[in-house]
């Protein structure tokens, strides 16, 4: 899966789970300030990504994640480790 496909999936998850307008979601969108997510939402997103990828995501892998692009990079790295 390439980064564009991962971004498309994440965009879908953000829209479905949190009703974020897809037009507002860019790689530069900040999860907390721009998309109004909170820490519980971030956990829900990680759970959804674990289901989608079939991979266990360690919390420390997502500690530095701030933007949608960071999430894409983290998931891409996770999939490459397989």
List keywords for this structure.
82 residues; 54% helix; Non-ribosomal Peptide Synthetase Peptidyl Carrier Protein, Chain A; mainly alpha
Task: Describe the structure in your own words.
The protein has 82 residues and is mainly alpha-helical. It has one domain (3-80): ACP-like (Non-ribosomal Peptide Synthetase Peptidyl Carrier Protein, Chain A, Orthogonal Bundle), CATH 1.10.1200. Helix content is 54%, strand content 0%. Helix 1 packs across helix 2 (39-53) and helix 1 (3-18) crosses helix 3 (68-80). The protein is globular.
The tally of helices reads 3
Number of separate domains? 1
Helix and strand sequence: HHH
CATH fold-level assignment: Non-ribosomal Peptide Synthetase Peptidyl Carrier Protein, Chain A
* Separation of the first and last Cα atoms: 12 Å
Looking at the overall shape, the CATH architecture is: Orthogonal Bundle
The CATH C-level name is Mainly Alpha
**What class, by secondary structure content?**
mainly alpha
Provide the gyration radius in Å: 11 Å
Low-confidence stretches: none
Largest sheet: none
Kindly state the number of beta strands.
0
Mean pLDDT: 91
Helix content: 40-55%
Summarize the structure in short.
The protein has 82 residues and is mainly α. It has a single domain, classed as Orthogonal Bundle (Non-ribosomal Peptide Synthetase Peptidyl Carrier Protein, Chain A), CATH 1.10.1200.10.
């Amino acid at each position: 899966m390439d980064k564009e496909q991962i971004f498309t999936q994440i965009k879908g998850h953000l829209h479905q789970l949190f009703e974020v307008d897809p037009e507002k979601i860019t790689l530069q969108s900040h999860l907390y300030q721009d998309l109004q997510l909170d820490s519980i939402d971030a956990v829900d997103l990680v759970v959804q990504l674990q289901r989608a990828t079939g991979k266990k995501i360690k919390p420390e892998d997502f500690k530095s994640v701030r933007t949608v692009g960071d999430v894409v990079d983290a998931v891409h790295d996770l999939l490459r480790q397989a």
